[in-house]
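Long-time lurker. I teach an intro course on protein structure, and each term I like to show students one example going from raw sequence to a predicted 3D structure in token notation. This year I'd like something fresh instead of my usual example. Would anyone be willing to generate the tokens for the chain below so I can use it in lecture? Attribution to the forum is fine with me.
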Amino acid sequence: MIFKLDNKDKKMANLILNVQLPAYKVEAKLINFEGIPQLNDNVECIRDSQEIFIGYVIENDLKGFLAYTEDDNEYQICRLVVHPSCFNRGIARKLVNYFLNEIAKKKKVIVSTGSDNIPAINLYKTSGFKFHKKIEVAPNFFISLFENTTGN
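-- Reply from a regular --
Happy to contribute to a lecture. Here you go:
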């Protein structure tokens, strides 16, 4: 089941963090970059975030989430994480599809990921995102920016 999460709630923020940190640790190894900003988050960072969080829950247990921002022209997916114990179950795809079909129907959506994160890149491409550009965010470390305008 997918529903909105209250990241301002301390208990929920802790649950979010318990999914986020292990997921980003796996990604950091995958892309060989330990500088992912969300690896430094704590409960207060989650509670203070202005992002909107939607979560994927199985038997009252948060297994993954997507967080996004919205402005007048577009949405930006800021975080898409699945707990490593639930990898390869389609949870990330379900979150992206839900977001695109139920929330971001009329605006452009942008997302970025490490350029070496092949699983994420494949997910975005097969979800209708088009490669936009590559950006160097640290010495010899690049992220790839994708856009989805199918809702426009």
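Some talking points for your students: The chain has four helices and seven strands. Strands lie at 2-5, 52-58, 61-70, 74-82, 108-114, 130-138, 141-148.
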